[in-house]
Amino acid sequence: MADQIRVLIVDDIPETRDHLTKLLGFESDIEVVGAASSGAQALQLAAELVPEVVLMDINMPDMDGIAATERLSAEVPDAAVIMMSVQGEADYLRRSMLAGAREFLVKPFSSDELTASIRQVYAREQEKQSRRAAAPVMASTNGTGPVAPTGGGGDRDGQIVAVFSPKGGVGRTTIAVNMAIAAATELGKSVVLMDGSFQFGDVGVLMNLNPKNKSIADLVPELEAGEPESLDTFVINHSAGVRVLLAPPSPEMAELITPTAVRRVLEALRTQHDLVIVDCTSWFNETTLAILDAADVILTILSLEITSIKNMRLFLEVADQLGYEHGKVKLVLNRADSSLGIRVTDVENSIGRKVDHTIVSDGRSVVYALNRGVPFFLSNREAEVSQDVLRLAQAVAGERVAAGSDDARKKTEKKSLFSFR
Ligand SMILES: Nc1ncnc2c1ncn2[C@@H]1O[C@H](COP(=O)(O)OP(=O)(O)OP(=O)(O)O)[C@@H](O)[C@H]1O
Ligand SMILES: [Mg+2]
Description:
The protein is of the alpha/beta class. The protein has helices spanning about 15-25, 40-50, 65-75, 90-100, 110-135, 170-185, 205, 215-225, 260-270, 285-295, 305-320, 345-350, 365-370, 375-380, 385-395, 400-405, 405-410, and strands spanning about 5-10, 30-35, 55, 80-85, 105, 160-165, 190-195, 235, 245, 275-280, 295-300, 330-335, 355-360. Helix 3 (about 65-75) packs parallel to helix 4 (about 90-100), helix 8 (about 215-225) crosses helix 9 (about 260-270) and helix 9 packs parallel to helix 10. The model is unreliable at about 135-155 and about 400-420 (pLDDT under 50). Magnesium ion binds near residues 172 and 173. Magnesium ion binds near residues 172, 197 and 279.
């Protein structure tokens, strides 16, 4: 059958390979195209047979499943890996997802669980590939993850999206990180996530990145000395296919980042990516304002709390005085279904405008993800909270077409409440 899902089985135990082959033999829409007994053989067979789904055992003697998945993601990026493990430990799950696996099955699993996973991963992959084919600007592959964004270049005119809120702790970092991953993995965008919380940034923590990596503090002096050819040295490739520009490693280094420096950094990032997502601080200092000014869209996050609503009202007034067009500021209500005695309509009445997007509260997925260092969009893509984030990413990515980029950029003569240097 032409539309069968082509599956490659990788397991060092012959009985397991046979068992899985027999099990899948009953499914008319699945074809086992090969079986490999080691990571090295898996890479070789995957290159020859071009499977759509690879069932990968995590524990193998020569090259383990994680190392094999990492190489597969680079060498045969369209093959989606389902990792199989006898251990359901968080660390295994985290490392597998970061290596580029799409699903994680804990042995023993039922044949229903197995076939459902294969079909789900396949369907998701097909959808992603058709979206990618439709996207005019596509990222090139540099072998670090499922979707590897551009490295050099510099001829793009990406969209800057500031994730802001006038109150802390409402979910800015959570939304910025997961939206970046959604835009990269599901929409095929080349995405850079900049931690704009220069003193106490937590993007690196949520994405489990080594704080010893280079940060914006290294990039700024380079940009001041003259345009560096590539940002690759400063921007980290996260295995989810997103690039990340970290905040400085220590709070006092934040002083280096002047408003002028921020503007230069954003311009440099914009020319190399489709989307530049910035996780901002919740206070109005000059650098945050420089980010908000430069942004095409400001996603303003609020929660169902009186203080959040009050600060939002004030922010909308400030945005007005700054001359931001109405469409530039979008309201995102996080944890919109929390039952705290305030309803969405109360919020809308209080601030005098409609909420543009809502995101459900899902403490389980969010905290589970946080504690394991794997963003929930990677580990639990089907969850409602992930779907909400995906809808937000889709709306934002389509924003430019809707708003018209020229309009969105006409802000040079805008009034300013602050005197920028
Ligand atoms: N949709 C959600 N459902 C459940 N919990 C959430 C959700 N969004 C965020 N949280 C939780 O709320 C807390 C604050 O989130 P986050 O750190 O993303 O907010 P922030 O605005 O970036 O905060 P800060 O001011 O510290 O930078 C975290 O514990 C996070 O796990
Ligand atoms: Mg934060």
